[in-house]
């Protein structure tokens, strides 16, 4: 019998835990530059929950990958498959479980990193030391960014540093090594940045060696009214794929592998020239032309559906994203409007073979073209009250064919909008609410099956959302509370009965996110948060059942102690509640167990030298952050890393 969803108020009796991820105080949002309107500017009190992670917080965390930083953020559930350097890691916002990667939009300087297919974002495309800040929008970003922004947006902003250079060397458990370097220099009106990074590890499990190499750079030429620039990046990732384990294998020896010869290789590159112009005091223009290319090679000897153990997949995307910001009056009211166009043209080709040395058995090509126009207006109704209204129209054309002569077309268009209010109660106190619609188009993988293409068109997902929150901050504390409800229909998922991707049952996602920090005194700082969420089907045979891989509770807590300015010690605790295995939409089987793990970081700074040591999984907890159909993907056991950095 279907269960009835609990009212949102039932989630309220949560205990908020204060805590922190670095030795530096988190700046108030009003004091930093953000891209809430797709333009760099001081915060304009957006009617949304936004968190900014600074460069200092990233560096002081001692993290080896960006997901390692994000796992302590409210509203984000990080689900790695393999290892500690971010390989094949998905991030869930708003409780989508196994479908999370397609519903969390990841940007690099405002340009999307999500692939045309279902492959996870390459989190190592940009070296960690080159990141200036990370902006997180909890909740839909469909009006400004379109596709994939259903649950939220993560925007990675790279640094435009002053003159300087650095070098870093590191080593740790499982023969792990790391070497990175960065260079920044200004020559008159010309600014150049270059960052390089290499990580290598044998991995905690058998057949889980990982190697990552990446390079990113930016060259900008400034002039009186703005800047012309070109950004580029390249990444190579090689990962052994140990596969999943049964329950008995997981309990007896989680370091063993299902397969000793499966592997994945992935190369990504991008080139993005652009321009930023301050045309007048009231008009600002920005545009980028982007080209990205990716090649993925995967061999899975343990999984050969329709003689396709080996696949070489290539994607390339051309984009053009011009936009204009106009500061004007709305009658007597101060107002600003952002209007822009997003154009993306992409192609995916896949060659499938029965072995990594066999002939191509099947080829698939899928083309996609997307065109959108959007508008966002923000008006000051009073000095304290800001009203936001926005809309987007997007059209997408998809066509596919394979070497057997089969093909399909799948064209759609969608219009979404949002309204919001932000009210400043007093200095450091703000309440806001936002309501609107959101959507997601099917990705290119969702047009295919094991043996061909879907038998009927897959419609875009669509939904309605309501967010309400409060931000409080003072000299020694900050607190964010956000409540949300998101109702989706036509959600796309794999149907195990038909072996196709289909528009299945309606779902509901709702919850409360609380995060904050408190500086006890100059030496002690606490930060932390808790997420309470319900994600469930609201019609069909699984009505009232929970969406798999979504925990009802996620909590983080920590403390940083700085006995002297040169030394900082941090302990962070991450708790994720129990979840149903991926694929168990009927909630008929046992759950993945809840887990609580702790990480410890110690740093020492002397002149231009910084030494950091980090212990992950301090108590050597045996746990699985991800699992499908009763199979486990174990997380790494206790691991130790240390690095030495010198700033020139």
What report would you give on this structure?
It is a single chain. The strands form 7 sheets. The protein has a 24-stranded antiparallel beta sheet that branches. With 648 residues, the chain is mainly β. It contains 4 helices and 39 strands.
Q: CA-to-CA gap between the ends? A: 66 Å
**Mean pLDDT reading:** 89
Query: What coarse outline follows from CA principal-axis ratios?
Result: globular
Give start-end ranges of low-pLDDT stretches.
1-29
Structural class, from helix and strand content?
A: mainly beta
Helix content: under 10%
Strand percentage:
over 45%
Radius of gyration from CA coordinates: 24 Å
Main beta-sheet annotation = 24 strands, antiparallel
Q: How many DSSP-defined strands?
A: 39
Please tally the helical runs, counting DSSP H or I stretches of 4 or more residues: 4
Note the main attributes of this structure.
globular, 39 strands, disordered N terminus, mainly beta, 5-stranded mixed sheet, 648 residues
Briefly characterize the structure.
With 648 residues, this protein is mainly beta.
What topology does this entry show?
Elements: E1 33-34, E2 41-42, E3 49-54, H1 55-60, H2 66-70, E4 77-80, E5 89-92, E6 104-108, E7 111-112, E8 131-138, H3 142-145, E9 152-158, E10 164-172, E11 176-187, E12 190-201, E13 210-223, E14 226-240, H4 247-252, E15 263-278, E16 283-299, E17 310-320, E18 323-330, E19 333-353, E20 362-380, E21 385-402, E22 407-409, E23 412-426, E24 429-440, E25 461-473, E26 477-489, E27 492-495, E28 500-503, E29 507-519, E30 524-537, E31 553-564, E32 567-576, E33 579-580, E34 591-592, E35 595-606, E36 609-616, E37 626-628, E38 631-633, E39 639-647
Parallel strand pairs: 6-9
Antiparallel strand pairs: 1-2, 3-8, 4-5, 6-7, 8-9, 10-11, 10-39, 11-12, 12-13, 13-14, 14-15, 15-16, 16-17, 16-18, 17-19, 18-19, 19-20, 20-21, 21-22, 21-23, 23-24, 24-25, 25-26, 26-29, 27-28, 29-30, 30-31, 31-32, 32-35, 33-34, 35-36, 36-39, 37-38
